[in-house]
Amino acid sequence: MSPRDLGSTALRSARRAPVTVTITVLVLLTTVVGVVTRVSHAPNGPQDLGPFRVFAASTGVLALLLTLAGVVVLVGASERLMGSRRTAAAFVVTTVVGTGLGALSAFVDLDGRNAGALLLGRATSFDPWTAIVGTIATASAFAGPLWRRRIRVNTLAVVAALFLYAGHASDLYAVLAAATGWILGEVLRRTPKRVGWTRSSHREIRVLLGTVVLVSAVGPVIALVSRARVGLLAPIAAVVGTGPVTPVSGCRADGVAGECLRHLLAYRATDPWTLLLAVPPLLVLVVGGLGLFRGSRFAVWLVVVVDLVTAIAAAVTYTAVPGRIERLHGTEDQFIVTLSIVASVLVPLATAVVLVVLRRSFTVLPTRRRLIGFAAVVLGTAAVLVAVLLVVADASPTRVADPLGIAVAALGPISPTTFWDHLPTMGAGLRFSLAIAGPVLWLVVAIAAVRPTGAAPLDLDPDGTRADRERARALLKAGGGDTFGWMTTWQGNTYWFADDGRAGIAYRRNGGVAVTLGGPFGYEDARTPALAAFARHCDDNGWTPVFYGVDDAVAVPLRAVGWSTLPVAEDADFDPRPWTTSGKKKQDVRTAVNKAAREGITATWSAWHELPTATTRQIEAISEEWVSERELPEMGFTLGGVDEMRDPDVRTLVAQDAEGTVLAVTSWLPSYREGRVVGWTLDVMRRTNAAPNGVMEFLVASAADRMREDGAEKLSLSAAPLAQAPGAAPSGDGVQSLLDLVGGVLEPVYGFRSLLRFKLKFGPDLHPLVLAYPDAVALPAIGVAVVRAYLPDLSLRQTLALARGRG
C-alpha cells in the first residue's frame, strides 16, 4: 500500500471514529513519553505527565498492546453505538468520577489507625482501562437487549473479579467507572426504558452464567500471581493456593483469625510447582463453565458442589480457630478482615444459589451410563488416594494423631488450612503424599466430568440421544411425517421405534403420561400399525399414551378402537404452485409485498451456516429482544428458536433493508418424501420493533414464491397451538377447559390466536388437529402433561397465576 493510500485510509478512519483515533494516538504518545522520561532521568516518569498519565500504559509492551487493542475494539464499538460526542463525554466523565470516588477511599479510617495517608498514595495509580471500561459500559445502554446484557455482565464480571481477588487501586477505579457508565448510559439514552426484570432466553442464560463461572475460575489464579493482593476474595485464592506443600504460619488451632488471614494474604505462588497444585480445583470450574454453555444440568450441580466446598473450606479456615472471638489486633483492620471473610464465604454460596434457581434453563441431561462412569471413577480414585494416605501415614516414623484429617486431606487445596499446622512433625513421604493427593483427585474429577457435562468441543451427544435423533431424521427423509414431523428431531424428545424399524414416534413424558409430538413418522404403510404398538409399549411401562396434535390420518383409527379426541389446534397450509396474491382476501398480503418493493426490502432464503456472521448476530439479538418482552418462560415442544434454526436442513428467510439491517426472520422446516423435499413448514417468526408493518406478510409471500420455483407441493403455516378457528365447537371436556384457559392466558404473551388470524390472510386450507387419549380418568394428568410439555420451566408462582386466569 502506497503512502498516499495509507494516508487516505487513516483520514477515513479519523472521520468515521475521531474519538477512537485520538485516544489511540494519545495512548501511544503518552506511553512513549513516559518510558523515555523514566529511562532518561525520572523514575516516576508517568506521574510527570500530569492529567495525560491516564492514557499511559506503563507496565510493559504487552500492556501497551492490550491497551491499544482495547481502545480500537471497545472504544471503537462504543463510538459506533452512541456517536462521537457521547463517547468523548463517557470517556471523560467515567474517568473523573471513577478515579475521584476511588480517591475518597483515602479518607476512610474505620479503626482510627490513620491509614488514610497510605491509601491516598495509592490514589495516583491511574490506568487507561478505567476510561475504556467506563466508556463501553456507557455504550451498552445503546445496544439491543442481547448485547446490552452481554456487555454489562461480561464487563462487570471481569472488573469485579480483578477487584475482589487482586484489589489494586486501578481495579477499584474500573469498578466505579463501570457503575458510572451504566448510570450515564441510561441518562444519555432517550429511548423508552423498561423497568424491572428482563427475561433472558435459555441460550443467553447459559452464556451469561457460563461466563461468570469461567471468570470465577480465573480470579484465584490472578490473585495467586499478583504482587499486591488485598481484594475481598483474596482469602479464597489463598485457600486454593495453599496446602501441605506451603503451610501458612498463623493458621493453627490456637491462632487468631486475623493473623491467619494476614499471612494468607501475604502468600504468593512464586514457583510453578505450587501454582500447578492449585490449578486442578479451578479446572473443575472451567469444565463446569464450558458445560453450562452446552446447557448441561450436570454442569450446574458440579459447579454448585465446588462452590459449596470452597465456601465451607473458607469458613472453616478463617473461623475454626478459638481466637476468632478475640478482638483482632496488630496491623489488621477488624472491619476489613470481617468483611473479607464474609465475602469469601457468601460469594461462592451466592453463585451456587443462582445456579440452582436457574437450573431449568439447563435442559441437557447426561445419560445414566455417563453418570455411573463419573461416579465410579471419582469414588474409586478417592478410595485409592485415602487408602494410600493411610498406608503411608501408618508407615511414617511419626505417629499421626488424627487419621480422619488424613482422609479430609484428600480434598487437597481446598481442605481446611488449620490441618496443616501438624505438617512440620510429619515424615517427608507423608508430606509428599498429602501434597499430591488433593490435586490428583480434583484433576480426576475435572477429566471425568468432561463427558457428563458435554464440555468437550466435539461431544455432539451430551444427552445420549444423538443416535435416535439421527435414526429419526433418516426415517423422516425416507418416509416423511405429519405437520410436526421435523420437530421430532429437536433435543428434548424421547424416541420409540417399531420392531421393523420402518416407523417411529417422538414423545415427552411427564409423570405417568407420554405426550407424543404429532403422530408416527416413517413409511406411510407402517404408521397406523405403529399406533397400537406404541400404546402397548406405554402400557408395559405403566404410562398413559396421548397423541397430541394429530390429524384425521391418526385420529380415525384411534377413534375406531375407542379412543376419544378433542381439538387443540388448526393446521393451515396451501399449495404454493398455483398460489398468488390476487383476490380481495389477500389485499393485506398484496399491499405488504408492494410496500416492501418500494422501500427496497429484500428476502434472503438460506441455511443458517451460509448466512454472514453479521446477519446471524442480528437474528440472535432480535430473538433475545423478543424473549425479553415475554412475561413467561420460553415455550418448547412444537415451538422452535435460534438453536433449532441452526439445523443445516432448516432454511431461514431473512428480511433486510437496503443497508443490510435485519428487520424480520422466519425459519422453515422441511417435509420429505422418498428422500426429496416436498414441502416446508413455518416455525420461527421474529421481527424488530422498528420493522415496518406487513414485513411478515412479505416474508411468507416471498417463501411461497421461492417454493413455487423449487416445485414444492405444500407450504404449511404450521399449527397455532392452543388455538382454534372461529366457530369451532368446544367438546366440554375438562382437559379442553384447562387448555382453553392456558391458551387464553398465553394469548397476550404469545399471541397464538392472533397468529391464527394472521395465517388466514393467505387463504389457506384449515385442518383441525386433535388430542387423542384412551381413558377419560387420566384427563387431569393429561392436561398438566401437555402444559408441561410446552412450559417445562413454569414456576409455582406462574402456575398459580395460570390457575387464576392471570399471566
Describe the structure.
With 807 residues, the protein is an alpha+beta fold. The protein has helices spanning 3-16, 18-40, 61-103, 116-122, 128-139, 145-165, 169-188, 202-224, 234-241, 257-266, 272-293, 297-319, 334-357, 368-395, 403-408, 428-448, 450-453, 466-479, 524-540, 552-560, 587-598, 613-628, 642-645, 695-710, 734-750, 752-759, 779-790, 796-803; strands spanning 494-497, 503-510, 513-517, 521-522, 544-550, 564-574, 602-606, 651-656, 662-673, 676-687, 714-721, 765-773. Among the domains are: 16-198; 199-464, no CATH class; 467-563, Aminopeptidase (3-Layer(aba) Sandwich), CATH 3.40.630. Helices cover 55% and strands 11% of the residues. Strands 1, 2, 3, 4, 5, 6, 7, 8, 9, 10, 11 and 12 form a 12-stranded mixed beta sheet that branches. α11 (272-293) packs antiparallel against α12 (297-319).
